[in-house]
Amino acid sequence: MALIPGTLIAGTKYPNDPQSLLNTFASYLTAPEARRNRPTVSVYTAVAGATITARPDGIDETVFLNHASTAATATFVFPSNANSVTGQILRLFAVSAVTALTVTSTGLTLQGTALTALTANQSVAWQKVAASTWIRLQ
Prior knowledge:
Layout: H1 18-29, H2 32-36, E1 40-44, E2 51-53, E3 61-65, E4 71-77, E5 89-94, E6 98-104, E7 109-111, E8 122-130, E9 133-136
Parallel strand pairs: 1-3, 2-4, 3-5, 4-6, 7-9
Antiparallel strand pairs: 5-8, 8-9
């Protein structure tokens, strides 16, 4: 079966040789916009006193704090502007409470209610809406 250039994705022209075609798809799949379409879940069981850093690759992420009892402190670190993409969503869910939560967002603006603690079974989310700017969704 022969590949017909330009027919795989409407409006896109592809090279005729297989290696160039593979390189074209590889560059598409590693672009920040393509990575956003592959969300991930990161699970943490040791939360007390931990620093939890969001992924630095532009992927939508749910951070699942699956700790057995109340944690006195924890820190959540946002990805830098260079390591995130507009439209990206970060979610944080805690099974048990975190009494004092520090949210670190160096060089970023976080719009919405500041988060300083988490109650048991609480979920929060942020979305990047512009360069260096995130809004709290819930």
